[in-house]
Amino acid sequence: xxxxxxxxxxxxxxxxxxxxxxxxxxxxxxxxxxxxxxxxxxxxxxxxxxxxxxxxxxxxxxxxxxxxxxxxxxxxxxxxxxxxxxxxxxxxxxxxxxxxxxxxxxxxxxxxxxxxxxxxxxxxxxxxxxxxxxxxxxxxxxxxxxxxxxxxxxxxxxxxxxxxxxxxxxxxxxxxxxxxxxxxxxxxxxxxxxxxxxxxxxxxxxxxxxxxxxxxxxxxxxxxxxxxxxxxxxxxxxxxxxxxxxxxxxxxxxxxxxxxxxxxxxxxxxxxxxxxxxxxxxxxxxxxxxxxxxxxxxxxxxxxxxxxxxxxxxxxxxxxxxxxxxxxxxxxxxxxxxxxxxxxxxxxxxxxxxxxxxxxxxxxxxxxxxxxxxxxxxxxxxxxxxxxxxxxxxxxxxxxxxxxxxxxxxxxxxxxxxxxxxxxxxxxxxxxxxxxxxxxxxxxxxxxxxxxxxxxxxxxxxxxxxxxxxxxxxxxxxxxxxxxxxxxxxxxxxxxxxxxxxxxxxxxxxxxxxxxxxxxxxxxxxxxxxxxxxxxxxxxxxxxxxxxxxxxxxxxxxxxxxxxxxxxxxxxxxxxxxxxxxxxxxxxxxxxxxxxxxxxxxxxxxxxxxxxxxxxxxxxxxxxxxxxx
Length: 629
Description:
With 629 residues, the protein is of the alpha/beta class.
């Protein structure tokens, strides 16, 4: 494309400028900005450049692997949207609403490493749940918000999306509300041409270091203003974390000592090893050690569940899903080495796992706890690499029990039988393929099912169990599907959760995506029924949609869709879905009075809260409904 010259600078087109961004980004990363003039002609007087604010931001995101963004347009953010549309190397995926866009960016980040969501001012209130989920699940999502122009903000006048009587504070009020949910609690910034490079680098460094979200607001008109290039070096906090050599050596020696002196050491790898790109180091370490590893509910498939050293899931004393022999084996261990698992109510099996600090080690992203001592300023990847070099191969002195809570590989049930959970899980387990991206919403069918289905080789599993928001999966799967690069994406969700974000279905069709939706319709909120004083309360019900019709209504015209209520219909639908070259949507009907294994324990455990300790689901079906407890 042609260029024009004047006395002060070289003017280049948007597209030509975009082609030059990698060098700009490289100069920012190295903190030497003199090189910026090689690709974006610098005005020697002012320090300004023909690289615009949005071009710089997008250039850095592309350097970090972002090829897609998710968002909803609005007048204050048009300049950002236009920058995305004009960039030949990044594609905007435009969503049904802001919450869904935030969830989709989260799903994209989990598969791709980083995600981006774009909104106009005040619309960032809608995706609050999504940024909370990204924070809780250590997902690197950048929210980019549009603001009124600098002159509009300076005027103090009231514009749309502003709250009456608070005009002067409105432009950053919502930003301040988001701040506690971002990396380090302060990874928010209002971008100007002067601070663009420094603040972008600060936010991205914090995101990478903490593996948490960040947010920037770009006033309209500012997005297309030239960046002011800083002179000299830019010192960005957290940009290049380094382990303290002495602390690293001391921690590794102590972990080795504990493992070598124990009788039954075990590994507990957590989902954060995926967030910090430490899966390869963890796998190499565990294989070098020869010792067994187990995973919690949110950590499933972080390493292959087909691995010969995989001992099953550690689910404490959650009767039905847990295996008592495996739980006993782990809880009698004299050396539990955890690699970042998080202690929330799903991952600790509703507070029934062992939690004795004296016998445990936890290798965390930037520090390691050994017993009651904490070794700070050491990076997870460095600890794992050093352990892998020094550890001696061995086995436990006590034989590892086989995990017996799997649904099993044998398919049970007859074709005319109504669908119940274990036969359904058996068929779904057989349906999964190696390298699938398996996504689960926080629904009862997911929590009790995925813990008992053995995932195939190479499969990744993602769920939002730390924050636990219903509806996350339907929208997050959009991001997974965009980032999947040929891998099949399969969502398991309940219809109650699905209703919250089902309006995003049309976006899958719009962009030609081909996911697999498995929607369990059990006539209401299953988890609420088994944790409630009275399962049949009307607030546990949801509107009964014609779910299998939704894809067609929303523009997914060529999808394979089916509503199934018998095992024979389910078998036929899954067989067809396995061959489909389209999106797939299967509505699975299961009676609300039928509960999966593990649900009865929840019903009994929560009964004490209502003065009904020891209640059982069987008793409820037999007598409770009559009495309306």
